[in-house]
Amino acid sequence: MGLFGKSGSHPKDKVQDWIRKLRKEVMSIDRQIRNIEREEAKTRLVIKETAKLGDEDSCRILAKELINSKKTIDRLITSKARINSVIMVMNTQLANLKISGNLAKSSEVMKSMQGLISVPELAINMKQLSKEMIKAGIMEEMISETIDQLNESDGELSEEESKLLEKLLFDTTQGKMGNKIESVDSIITIKVKNQRK
């Protein structure tokens, strides 16, 4: 509380503080991605060494871990994109707040705006603005739903992931383990077709 019961922080300061915290989260996600990629490289080396010893079960387990780490990286990248979109929305809202504050301060601007814009045009613009605000609310719901989906735990590997596992084992162990599968592009194509259904 400031002097005479007024709060000391301005909305601009709050938004900038939130944006700063969100950017820290983005940097943290980047660090996590780099750490996972480093661990993937180490795991690939262990798979090669284990394949030389002929331990196929251990190689399969390690290859599954590689696939899980790829999924985790994909989720982190998605989360990072969503955080960046939230930052952009907050910046837009802050800019709108600045504009509305400036319009409220200047009655001359309001008078000139009334002279420039006819009432029917203003009504149309307000309807479009309300539609965009509704869309923003829908987008917020979509973001919360996808975050809930990301928090769900994963079960067994799907058929496409099993094929990817076999190909990964075959490529990483230079043909000593796993089965030679068609290219990963065809597996990804199958996955995209299944998602469209």
Strands, helices and their partners?
Blueprint: H1 11-53, H2 56-105, H3 107-116, H4 119-151, H5 159-172, H6 184-196
- SSE-based structural type: mainly alpha
Largest sheet properties: none
Q: What low-confidence regions span 5 or more consecutive residues with pLDDT below 50?
A: none
Q: Order of helices and strands, N to C? A: HHHHHH
Q: Compute the number of strand runs.
A: 0
End-to-end distance: 56 Å
Counting structural domains, the number is 2
Q: Percentage of helical residues?
A: over 70%
* Rg: 26 Å
Would you tell me the overall average pLDDT?
74
Instruction: Label the overall shape.
Output: elongated
Count of separate DSSP helical elements:
6
Strand content: under 5%
Descriptive account of the structure:
- It is a single chain.
- The chain has 197 residues and is mostly helical.
- The chain contains 6 helices and no strands.
- The protein has helices at 11-53, 56-105, 107-116, 119-151, 159-172, 184-196.
- Helix 2 crosses helix 5 and helix 5 (159-172) runs antiparallel to helix 6.
- The longest helix has 50 residues, at 56-105.
- The model has no long low-confidence stretch (mean pLDDT 74).
Summarize the structure.
It contains six helices and no strands. With 197 residues, the protein is mainly α.
Task: Give structural attributes.
197 residues, mainly alpha, 2 domains, 0% strand
